[in-house]
Amino acid sequence: MRRVIGAGLGLAVLAGGIGWWITRPVPVPPEAVADVTGDASHGEEVFWAAGCASCHMAPDAKGEAQLVLSGGQRFETPFGTFVAPNISPSPAGIGGWTLEDFASAVTRGVSPSGQHYYPAFPYASYTHMRLQDVADLKAFFETLPPSDTESQPHEVPFPFSIRASIGAWKLLNLRKDWVMTDAGGEEIARGRYLVEALAHCGECHTPRDALGGLDRSAWLEGAPNPSGEGRIPGITPAQLDWSQSDIAYYLETGFTPDFDSAGGHMAHVVANFARLPASDRNAVAAYLKALN
Amino acid sequence: MKTFFSAALAASLVLGGAATAQDYAGHLKARQGQFRILAINLGILGSIAKGETAYDEATAGAAAQSIKAVTMINQAPLWPEGSDNMSIDGTRGQPSIWDDFADFESKWSALGTAADAMVVAAAEGQGAIGPALGQLGGACKACHEKHRAPEN
Lengths: 292, 152
Known about the structure:
The complex is a heterodimer. Chain A is mainly α. Chain A has 13 helices and four strands.
């Protein structure tokens, strides 16, 4: 009998151990970034495409102040309220981080101290980023003004307050494969990289399942607004009949084909896209037109 | 009977307390109509900027002047308290407009500044219209970003 209990206990410990093992935070290995050097000027393009400032600038920051990534914007979601942290190059932000730290945070949602980040930080999109782009982005971050504003804690109730549970979420949702498996041609492939990785369009335009993972079977088909009322519109050809040049023009100016204008968080997205080369806006439009 | 009275009481509280879209029907039409006039004239200029229609100084100038004219409409009377999207249907105007009406008015006035630039650009020629549209679009977005709710 004792042996049975012992074996049972052993199994439970083993199962717990396996559970811990497969849900543990896994940083980017140091050798992966050993030979990568960042280029700040290309990093600026990555920065705008990835929309970092839209969430990490101070609430209502305008103009140059948008480059001070002191955090503080609040994002209310069904899982709790997330407060964007300070990610400026200062001790209150990401000052002193190695490229390994930065890449682990951005592409795997793992903090330098080995904690899981909440997926309000869209690393499930950024996980598709090329390491060179991650390094360039970090080099650009280091040129930005530091801020000593302390990051505020998230307001997340139990059970989502248990960060270990994010490990299980990552098993389900942190996927390396693209949603559009067959991106024909260079333009659509570039569009796929922008839409699925950098600009993380799916984070708002795709509905989520009960655990907050993106429902890839309804990719970009529209979803409830994660913070507040109304809906984020679907942008597949079935829902949006704009031409490729209509979409590119919208991303540049914020004007729809009937000259309504972008609002809400999309106004930030348009302001970011307006800073990118026209070829990138066309690539996003080509990708969207290629979705079935 | 008691149930009937409390139901009637509840109904009268509900009906008596809340404003309805009907109370502000004229305000909503005026608000949305002015945005529609803006959109139609922006469409004329946008089509010229994109090269879909040929530039013609009179057409471009009239569109720019119409936009300018709309921006000169005093907004305060069109936005009475209680006509936000939390209180009534039929509007996407958020309570933030009334929480900070000075901000709302300064954004409207920025639209006027952008419209002035468009009046100048429309007289200059096709190439000047695109950048002026960018400025106008920026003014639209700045206000929509903060004060307009997404579509349902």
